[in-house]
Each structure stands twice: as C-alpha cells, then as structure tokens.
Design goal:
Blueprint: H1 2-21, H2 35-49, H3 57-73, H4 80-93, H5 97-110, H6 117-131, H7 135-148, H8 153-163, H9 169-174
Length: about 190
C-alpha cells in the first residue's frame, strides 16, 4: 500500500513537471492570460509601432505594459527577459529612466545568463551617465561590463565610456588626434 502511494506521488510530480515545462502555447500565466494571447497582443502593438517615427507616450506605454505583462505572467519563458529588455528600451525612450533602470535590474537578477546581459549593464551605466548625471554609478556599471563580459562587444564601448566619463562631447572630440598632427610620420606636427 505504501509503495503504491509513493509511486502515485512520483507520477503526480512527474506529470506536474511535464505540464509545467511542456511549452504548451495555451498554458495560462499568473493572471490567467494565455501565452498566445500575450504574444498576439505584443504583435499587434509591434505592428502599430512600425508606423511611428517619434516616441509616442500612449503607444509606448501600451508596449511597456504588454511586454512587462508577458514577463510577469510567464517568468520562466525564454521570451521573458527579451520582453523586459524591450520594455526598458521603451521606458528609456519616454524619459522614464527610473523605470528603465528597474527593468534592467530585474533582468540582471532574474536572468543573469540573458544573451543581452552585457548590453543591459552598459545601458544602465549610460542612463546614469547621460540622463541622470551620476558618473559614480555609471562607472560601476561600465566596470561591471568589463569585469563580467570582457569579450563581449559591449566591453569595448564600456572601455571607451570609462576613459571619457565626465567629459563633454567637445572634449572627447578634441582628444582624438587631428589629421594634420602626424603628416610626416614623426609623431610631431
């Protein structure tokens, strides 16, 4: 009798695990929405956004809601971090920098192996530097890119950002060698 109960419990756990991981497009998220309904909503919004040339607060707001809803309802789905990344990009476009930073933080904490993790960290630093004028926090995130993702394409951008942190665009431009500075190859004018 005890063996039958253990076997029944084992099969129940196996069945629940299979159902939870089977990727069925009709499974329901935390709010009872189906995965496909969420995807259809995001696709409809994407279609409308293709015709927009400047950030539209209403359309971008709907996009942020749709993408964050998907990630909230299906946090274990491989699309969840992609949706959060897109939502962060839209939030940044609307000058909602704290919201964008919060979304990038969520990605870093919940999805540390996300293929755009380095870009998230760099974007974090960029918002702190360019939009919030907090070079100390920007430095932390740029350095994080170099430390955690040294071979990623964003590492080169982070190195450049760290080298020029706090400089004005004119100061950065003036730091480049001029065309006339080395015409004879001697290293002098």
């Amino acid at each position: 009798m005890r063996t039958k109960r253990i076997v029944a419990i084992g099969f129940s756990i196996l069945a629940i695990s299979f159902y939870a991981c089977n990727g069925d497009k009709d499974n329901k998220g935390a709010a009872g929405m189906s995965r496909q309904t969420c995807i259809d909503s995001m696709n409809a919004i994407d279609s409308k956004l293709k015709n927009i040339t400047t950030p539209d607060p209403v359309s971008y707001g709907k996009a942020i809601t749709a993408w964050t809803n998907f990630a909230t309802n299906f946090p274990n789905d491989t699309l969840a971090p992609v949706c959060l990344f897109r939502a962060a990009s839209f939030a940044s476009s609307l000058n909602q920098y704290q919201r964008a930073l919060s979304l990038y933080d969520t990605i870093a904490k919940k999805y540390p192996n996300f293929y755009k993790a380095a870009e998230c960290a760099f974007s974090h630093g960029n918002i702190y530097e360019d939009k919030m004028k907090d070079t100390a926090k920007a430095r932390v995130y740029y350095q994080l890119v170099l430390d955690k993702y040294p071979k990623d394409q964003w590492a080169m951008q982070a190195r450049f950002a760290l080298k020029n942190l706090g400089k004005t665009p004119d100061e950065i431009i003036n730091s480049f060698p001029s065309k006339d500075s080395d015409k004879d190859g001697s290293g002098t004018k």
